[in-house]
Amino acid sequence: MSIIQGTVCPPPKGYITIVVARFNRTITTRLLEGALAKLRNHQVRDADIKVVWVPGAYEIPFVASYFARDAECLAVICLGAVIKGETSHDQHINRAVSLSLNEIASRFGTPVIFGVLTCDTVEQAMARSGGTEQSRDKSVGPTAGNKGAEAAEAALEMIDLMTELPAIQIPRLPPIPQLISKMFEQDDDDDSDDFDDFFDEPRTPRKKTAKKTKKKTPKKKP
Q: In this structure, what CATH number is given to the domain that contains residue 149?
């Protein structure tokens, strides 16, 4: 049995992107500070960190996708704060963002870390961004109760894990046009269902045929 795992350690050459939502900025700024502190504690230089501000949590996946496709980007840390209101708006935002970020990570093979708070109250968000819980345990440092710091820690561990994963051979699929043409390949002898002729030759309009009507014979008068 082989056990593969990553450790929280200084990353290799490359850069880390942090996408931060400006909505609820008081909270997201705390998350950003916690993430930056964690990265700097593990010898990540400021020159290797890109911080990108977006209007709200809903816009995070768009920018995350932009950087995740870059081979030089080691990981994308996504920070935001969605707080429940009077309607179900927050549920739709949370669902859309989480599903999109998961898809981006799977598509591009780049660690995308979900650091978006989904809280019922402002107090819950403050406690998870280095707020009230920060003063309860001084021994763990300035990032206690900060989900931004936890997201950065997860990013560092995933970056290291990516270097430990074994190389695998992924079968190459033929280009999409070839797959489509194979779907329409038919036997040349079968003229009744020949898709090639259908697409290559223009259709000829049907000729209108006059309807045959029966001649009415006049009835004989008695």
A: 3.40.50.960
- Domain, as residue range, for 85: 15-164
Per residue in 142-163, pLDDT (tens digit) is 445 899 999 999 999 999 999 9
As beta bridge partners, residue 84 has none
The answer to whether residue 211 sits within a structural domain is: no
Helix/strand/coil percent split, the chain, to 5: 45, 15, 40
Q: Is residue 194 part of a domain?
A: no
Within a domain: residue 205?
A: no
Catalytic residue status for 42: no
- The pTM of this model reads 0.71
Q: What are phi and psi of 80, to 5 degrees?
A: -165, 175
Neighbours of 23 (CB within 10 A): 17
Tens digits of residue pLDDT in 75-101 = 999 999 999 988 888 889 999 999 999
Q: Could you give the 3-state DSSP secondary structure of residue 213?
A: coil
Which residue among the candidates 89, 95, 107, 136 is catalytic per the annotation?
89
